[in-house]
């Protein structure tokens, strides 16, 4: 077996990005502030959409969904420690330290009161057994709910008789019901698991006791469940949170909290664990990886909360809010006796990737694993994002910088040794002159032609001294003050000019277009300074040395082989390979493709030129082939590709055509040719009332699609004429892409909204994504993850859930009916056969059995064929078939000549359909 060795090279580790945010749980509002006592418990009624809060003021406050106080329930005489809403009988249960367990009806009046004689600290409901369990001091009690169908006319909802268990030695602070079991924990650090029999009398049996679950008293406990896991999560005074299996095995421990854990909340929609520990915002953990992702999760106006001294005490997750599928809320009680509401937004951004210091203009991505996203903007830095394996919303970041250009020979440089004395002297004189000029700028004088007064820094100090000694009414002094003010203003302007010059010297050209070309594994980027930079992976850093089968070492003379597969060559990162310089202004359009075995590159931009580049194999670089030219007769001038600057470029491989959008309110379609003079114009897409900013080719419907500043999207046939339909976008189209799986049109607008139009539903808006705070500049679709990625002028990159129709397969080009050859550039190889698991139904397709020409009969048995035919019917059909065969045989025999007719003793010939004149040999 051949093995590989990696040459030892020091690689720079990937840099983690600044905090990104999971913006699915959005802050909505805060209500109920100004209460007299702290809130100890929360509950939500999904039927009436009401919020219940109870605390030290011995009252239960009822708020509607908007936060308005509806009513107050006053029956307890002590702190209210637990609230529970039972949706089965539409009853609210409450417990308090006064020992009362009260059931409240829908009208807000108590239905039943049970006096326990001991303080109550926690409350839970077992839906399988229809039982309520309360935590007391050193014991737990279980109450059985009454079935109203079995006891008609009864006003009670639970039996007054209860079953208790005294396993605890201190107060029971929390109780949880999960999958038919009860779990209790308390200040004695115990975690107790209870089993309750299905039948017979009410019994409470201890199944397992964990005596020291925490190092201090346990303050809170919840049950967390998703599609893959079921956990028991506990928080304690020891400033830690532990994750347990339902059998009591420790799975995970979360440390690093600064205070007592007061509440826990597992948010199923984002699969994150929210913790309150007297912090200014909920602390968020990923329970699967055990990582604190608080910096990656936006939990509301945390900056405002920090400045106002707001801290959170209690959390409640509401899985269903009677709204669209997936609706959820999180309620948080604060130290100001208020309630903060977060609401789940499925159309919000999954992740926000900040880090750009200026507007983000362009995006592209790779299809091979590991899947990479590249973003670039006006700061001139390309950032490479890669999603971490820990969770779905953390990304690592690397930056690609353009190397500093070398200085010209005539520029003086420090620390430069030149052997020629004359050249060295010349450099020294130039350097001395440069330094002297810079110093002289600070001693620059300004002459007054009228007064002949010269002001320098020394003169300024002299005037300041005279200002203290001479009479303020002196005219000479007033003149001096005037000239000094003018001198200060001149100096300030000079300083500003120097600062601007320094900034302009450090400023990099902005990135306005990017394309990742998968077949060559290169990144092509266009800049505002008219240059095109080609980036590639550093294959020379990762080298693999093969060993022979016997395990021998490599011979010194053997060449070193380099592995160039899609994974290994990406470990070392990317670097600038070479630069293309042909354009005269910003490069806004890039298209790369293979035609006739040759890789071609088309580029265009603000200079209205279309440059053709050919990839030469010997040098592995793109070299200039031609420029779009069409010399006019008698003039020889170069004809530009459009009357306005070109803003977008798209290539259609099926038709060997490319199209570009222009500021002149038109889009042009031309035939591709290696010769610029043979790029004939095929069509002009004319109809927009403002500049055309985007143009895309829809491979699914074979159509051109354009977006414009006139707030419309136009769909054109492959030939370009006429316009098929117009779609209203409600905002100027600044970005556009197509969903390669379902053909939807995704647009980004100046109004900061991303819209998804479904062409199969009469161009209705299937999804709207809101979250950007400035104009959306670029959108890409990643089908492997069913995600859209957008770039905006708000200096961020955001990841969104893609629009998926009902019944649409996820993340598959084959499922969408798109052939790999027709896949968009940058997606080739994404859905290889070995990468997609083949199901049993595909390996064993269901075949419809063919009908038998002659059924098999069993005497006396009727055969049900679905059309109610009996045995006699089949027998009659068989008889008719035999008679038909015999008649055909007799007819053929009569038509044959006499010499060729068989003898009488011979066996009759078999039925035959040969033409007349064919011989039939009879038996001898």
TrEMBL record:
<dbReference type="InterPro" id="IPR015943">
    <property type="entry name" value="WD40/YVTN_repeat-like_dom_sf"/>
</dbReference>
<dbReference type="InterPro" id="IPR011047">
    <property type="entry name" value="Quinoprotein_ADH-like_sf"/>
</dbReference>
<feature type="region of interest" description="Disordered">
    <location>
        <begin position="895"/>
        <end position="924"/>
    </location>
</feature>
<keyword id="KW-0677">Repeat</keyword>
<feature type="repeat" description="WD">
    <location>
        <begin position="353"/>
        <end position="386"/>
    </location>
</feature>
<dbReference type="InterPro" id="IPR036322">
    <property type="entry name" value="WD40_repeat_dom_sf"/>
</dbReference>
<feature type="repeat" description="WD">
    <location>
        <begin position="685"/>
        <end position="716"/>
    </location>
</feature>
<dbReference type="InterPro" id="IPR020472">
    <property type="entry name" value="WD40_PAC1"/>
</dbReference>
<keyword id="KW-0853">WD repeat</keyword>
<feature type="repeat" description="WD">
    <location>
        <begin position="769"/>
        <end position="801"/>
    </location>
</feature>
<dbReference type="Pfam" id="PF00400">
    <property type="entry name" value="WD40"/>
</dbReference>
<feature type="repeat" description="WD">
    <location>
        <begin position="211"/>
        <end position="247"/>
    </location>
</feature>
<feature type="compositionally biased region" description="Basic and acidic residues">
    <location>
        <begin position="915"/>
        <end position="924"/>
    </location>
</feature>
<dbReference type="InterPro" id="IPR001680">
    <property type="entry name" value="WD40_rpt"/>
</dbReference>
<protein>
    <submittedName>
        <fullName>Uncharacterized protein</fullName>
    </submittedName>
</protein>
